Amino acid sequence: MRLLCGQLKTVASRSGFAPRLFIAQTLVIAAGASIAALVAWAVAPQLFHTHLEHAGLSSTSSQAHHVEEAFTSSLIVSVSVALLSSVVLALVVSWLITRLVERSIGAVVTSTANIAAGNHTVRVPPSRLGREFSDLTGSVNQLAIQLDTSEEVRQQMLSDLAHELRTPITTIAAQVEAAEDGIRVPGEQMYSVIRGAADRLKRLADDIDAVSLAGEKQLRTNPEPTAVNDIVTAAIREAQTGFDNAGVTLTVGSTVPDFVDADRARIGQTLANLLSNALRHTPSGGTVTVSSHRRNNNQIDITVKDNGDGIAADHLPHIFDRFYRTDTSRSRDAGGSGIGLTIARALAEAHGGTLIASSRGTGHGATFTMILPKQPPKRSPTGDPR
Known about the structure:
The protein is an alpha+beta fold. It has nine helices and seven strands, in the order αααααβαββαββααββ.
């Protein structure tokens, strides 16, 4: 038995999980069978001998000796057959379980190896080993889906970044070449064009930096009690000129006189992103409305609603993804980098809130709702709210 255990351990140390599992089960079965045989051999003859004495048969008589030999031989045969049958059956069941485990683990290993090699389309077949293995295969499949989506977003992001960088760089290079060739004389107009292209590059760099910080949850805020009306009024005042030039009406809907604990500059940036996005997607003659209301006793909603292009149902879950565009060509022409909404949601989350979007579909406008924690009302020394 000791020699068998040593050989099995040697084999197990050089094998994979499935052989080790089978060897471990074999050792358990062998140990159980050995213990059962030893117990039967040690206990049964003594008990039988005691019963013979109680029956009045002397232990030295030939009859007692013959009966004990018959019992011992029958015990050996019956126990041996029973143990052998049990061991064989247990080994067969263990082998089947081991094969099932090996196939399931092998499928996971093969799939993860393919995923690591860059093939994100592979999927692990369902497992029949219980909830834990089903959860494992489900997690691996979900990982593959997320990596596949991330790869698509990464490729799109690189393409978008190349386009966003190429446009201002081409503008600057054209102006410099025109000056070098004597086609244009450097002046205020040229400087203005170059300055605009440089500003666009700076905004893109700032956006990339902001979205990187958002992904690492490192956006810094300095919140203080701020009136919701002041936030809305400031955002509309800054955006009004752009709306007037585009022929889009910017209005204020219902508002609440509550306060939120917010960084005025950061929340202003968030509303500016939402208004800029609404302006890009609302044609001339359209309307954008900013309003606020109480969601509940602890939260305030600030809503930007337009009657423009709307958002298709398949795009709606992804509009806050980095560099995601529902209409790539139009967004590029409009100068959007595709990360404004990502930054807007990150800023809202940095304040303990969030940003959600809704739309009834293409052509039915869109509504963006920023949810912020409500600032509790101040109380007078007497305990009355002020």
